[in-house]
Design brief:
single chain; 117 residues; alpha+beta; SH3 type barrels; 2 helices; 6 strands; globular
Length: 117
């Protein structure tokens, strides 16, 4: 099963439906930020992600993720670090690619700010 190969820094298509309130809905990308110890554990059914959107705002929590063969993205996008969610691995549909080390380092910094670490 492809979900057994989830790794930190991966971009995946996620089925966000059904959503509640202002949550994401539909099929959209997400960036996996959870540690690989949990991602690779077949007994742990969840992973932690941030949403990815082509719509970014001028806020530091929105980290640009570029279009590249590695990312699999076809439009300039933003990892929205304030939209940090624990989701079932079952929501992951297919892997797009992965972020660069620099992009993931910037996401890490913004996550520290978002959760006040």
């Amino acid at each position: 099963m492809a979900r057994a190969n989830i790794s930190r820094g991966d971009l995946w298509w996620v089925n966000w439906s059904p959503g509640r309130g202002a949550e994401q809905t539909g099929r959209r990308p997400a960036l996996v930020v959870q540690t690989d110890a949990a991602n690779h554990n077949p007994r742990y059914p969840n992973t932690i992600v941030v949403t990815v959107s082509t719509k970014g705002r001028g806020v530091p929590f929105h980290v640009p993720v570029g279009v590249s063969d590695e990312s699999g993205l076809t439009s300039p996008s933003f990892a929205k670090c304030e939209q940090l969610l624990t989701i079932s691995k079952e929501r992951l549909e297919s892997r797009l690619g992965n972020t660069s080390e620099e992009e993931l380092a910037q996401v890490d910094e913004e996550l520290r700010l978002v959760v006040d670490l």
